[in-house]
Amino acid sequence: MNELETLKKTILEQYPRLNENTEFKFACHPGVSCFNQCCADVNIFLTPYDVLRLKNHLRIDSQELLDKYTQLVADPKQQLPAVQLRMTETETKHCYFVDQEKGCTVYENRPWSCRMYPVGQASPKETGNDEDEKFFFILHEEVCKGFEDGKSWTIKEWMKDQGVDPYDKFGEKFKEITFNNFFEQGKVLTPQKVDMYFLALYNLDRFKDFIFKTTFLKRFDIEKDKIEKIKNDDEELLEFAFDWIRFSLFGEKTVNIKSELLKK
Ligand code: SF4
Ligand code: SF4
C-alpha cells in the first residue's frame, strides 16, 4: 500500500466524520510562522476544472499547462489516469506557483484541494455518489499552525469563503464519469477511449481543435447556439466535454449523431 492509499484508509477508518455544520478554528495568512510550508512536496490531484482555471489564469494553452506543471499518475485500481500538480525538482520540492513572500501566485484560480485545506471530503463508497455517505474531515498536520489562533468557521462557511461552488459543480460532473456504472460492471476501456478521456477533459484546447478542425460538426447534431457557446467560453466547452465523454466512453445518449448519417 502506498502513502496515499494508507492515508485514505486512515481517514476512512479513524477520522471523525464531520458534516457541513461542524465548527473549527482556523486562520491562514502571511503572518503565520508556517507560511507557504504546505505548498511543497504535496500530492495535489487536479480535476478538469482545476486545469481550466489554471491555464486561463496563466494565459497559456492547455497542452503547455499539462506539459510544464502536471504529471500523470497511473492508479492500478483505476482505468483512468490521474493528473497531479508537479512540484519543482529542488531540495524543497515546492510548488511552481508559490512565491516565498507573496504566497500563492495563482490564488484566485488555485485548485480545489488548495481551497479546501485543511478541510477534506471523503466517501466510503467506491461510487462516491452517495450523498448520505459523503463526509468531511479536518487534516491536522504538524506543520500547519493555522489552528492555533484562528477565527471560528463552520465547514459550510469555510467552503463559501474559499469560493468552492463552481469547482463542486464541475466536480459532480467529473464524478459521473470517474465513478460511472461502466466500471462497477467490470467493463474495460480501450486505450483509444482512455486517450479521448484525457484529451476532452484535460487538454481542452486540443479538444476544441477536435470539434472545430475536423469533420466532428458534420457528424454530430449540436445546436447552433451551443456551437457558438463552446467556441467562445471554456466552461461551456468543458460542460460539452463531459457530455461527449459519457457518450463516447459509455454509450450514454448525451450527444446525438446526425439523423442523415443514422439513415445511411
Ligand atoms: S497552487 Fe497555490 S496554494 Fe496550491 S500548492 Fe501551489 S502555491 Fe500552494
Ligand atoms: S501550513 Fe497551514 S497555516 Fe501554514 S500556510 Fe499552510 S495552510 Fe496556512
Textual characterization of the structure:
- The structure is a single chain.
- By secondary structure, the protein is α+β, with helices and mostly antiparallel strands.
- The protein has 2 domains: 3-177, no CATH class; 189-263, no CATH class.
- It is 44% helix and 11% strand.
- It is built from 13 helices and 9 strands.
- The protein has helices spanning 3-14, 48-58, 62-69, 112-116, 155-161, 165-178, 181-184, 191-202, 204-212, 216-219, 224-232, 234-250, 259-263; strands spanning 23-26, 45-46, 70-73, 82-85, 98-99, 103-104, 119-122, 135-138, 151-154.
- Strands 2-4-3 form a 3-stranded antiparallel beta sheet. Strands 1-9 form a two-stranded antiparallel ribbon. Strands 5-6 form a two-stranded antiparallel ribbon.
- Strand 5 and strand 6 (103-104) form a beta hairpin.
- Helix 6 runs parallel beside helix 12 (234-250), helix 8 crosses helix 9 (204-212) and helix 8 packs antiparallel against helix 12 (234-250).
- The termini are far apart.
- Bound molecules: iron/sulfur cluster (SF4) (2 copies).
